[in-house]
């Protein structure tokens, strides 16, 4: 579908548009992001956790930009896992006991200090910025603890675990 749209745009204005491949890639990202946001918000509305779902979406997107992490091989897997995380986190927040949250926060901070950020080879962020990104990510995690935002604590924990998946997948290439 995105390829057809990109080709249509290119045919309308071949001189002032990017290549079909670039537009296809950009359209795929835009449409997948829309699917994740729209579906998660629908679930949030249906299950009476709209505000917490918005928090999960914003927190996950922001924290992922700071830390990197594992990328699935298919956009379907990415969409499904993102929707699952952002839709379930608000509900899990009510079920997780404090001692488990403390453990999750400790693991998150430990991993952030140890291995964050962790970007795949297709991400073009200069290594000179890694320390800044690490410090901002640690500050982000500490703020979620300080504000007692259990939804964000879950999102931070799961996203931090994805750093381990990226490490593991890089070793198997």
Order of SSEs: HHHHHHH
Distance from first to last alpha carbon: 30 Å
How would you name the oligomeric state of the polypeptide chains in this document? single chain
The proportion of residues forming helix, as a percent range, comes to over 70%
Number of strands: 0
Number of domains: 1
Unreliable residue runs? none
Shape: globular
Sheet with the most strands, sense and barrel status: none
| Gyration radius from CA atoms, angstroms | 18 Å
Overall description:
The structure is a single chain. This protein has helices spanning 2-12, 20-46, 50-67, 75-92, 98-115, 130-146, 150-171. It has 173 residues and is an all-alpha fold. The protein has one domain. The chain starts with a helix and ends with a helix.
Short note summarizing the structure:
With 173 residues, the protein is an all-alpha fold.
Offer a few descriptive terms.
173 residues; mainly alpha; single chain
Strands, helices and their partners?
Elements lengths: L1 H11 L7 H27 L3 H18 L7 H18 L5 H18 L14 H17 L3 H22 L2
GO biological process, one term: quorum sensing
Keywords: Cell membrane, Hydrolase, Membrane, Protease, Quorum sensing, Transmembrane, Transmembrane helix
Protein name: Accessory gene regulator B family protein
């Amino acid at each position: 579908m995105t390829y057809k749209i990109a080709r249509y745009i290119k045919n309308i204005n071949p001189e002032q548009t990017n290549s079909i491949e670039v537009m296809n890639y950009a359209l795929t990202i835009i449409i997948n992001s829309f699917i994740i946001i729209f579906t998660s918000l629908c679930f949030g509305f249906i299950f009476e956790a709209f505000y917490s779902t918005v928090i999960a979406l914003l927190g996950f997107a922001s924290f992922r930009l700071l830390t990197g992490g594992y990328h699935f091989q298919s956009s379907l897997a990415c969409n499904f896992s993102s929707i699952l995380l952002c839709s379930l986190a608000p509900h899990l927040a009510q079920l997780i006991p404090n001692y488990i949250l403390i453990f999750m926060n400790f693991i998150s901070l430990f991993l952030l200090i140890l291995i964050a950020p962790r970007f795949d080879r297709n991400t073009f962020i200069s290594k000179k910025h890694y320390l800044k990104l690490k410090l901002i990510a640690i500050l982000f995690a500490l703020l979620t603890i300080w504000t007692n935002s259990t939804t964000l604590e879950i999102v931070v924990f799961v996203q931090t675990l994805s750093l381990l998946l990226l490490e593991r997948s890089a070793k198997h290439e």
